[in-house]
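Class prep. Write one:
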Amino acid sequence: MPFVLGKSPKNPGKLPKENDVTALSEFQDMIWEAVPPRRHDNRKSYFAFVAEQLSWTPRRVRAFFHGEARTIRPKEWTSLNQRLDALKAAERRHEEDAHDLHQAYRDARESRALVGRNSIELGEAPAGNGTPGSPARSQAR
């Protein structure tokens, strides 16, 4: 059964009920979160992009954003929730990857601090690498 936002007012000048407006604005916020606008989008291209991403029609998306929609169909609700769940799962994966990278960085810094620069034997520098006193540097002068 579709979620009813409100019925068309009998008097055109009459505003919809407050809870209808709240439900519609919450659904609009969910759409914004599920399909954020791209930098180059204008209103018309954004509606087309949302329709493509959620498998809706551009007219249906426009109806939600202009407050003309009277119901939210179960298919629309499901597709929007699936999109939000997929985005949240991707965000969790990115956070885990970032945490792993930070941990690897901290481990590398700790191991570098334990080894220390003075305890490593660098050995003889190859000739001509541009270090002070090397033959290549003195010939270049």
Notes: The longest strand covers residues 3-4. Strands lie at 3-4, 71-72. The mean pLDDT is 78. The chain has one domain: 3-112.
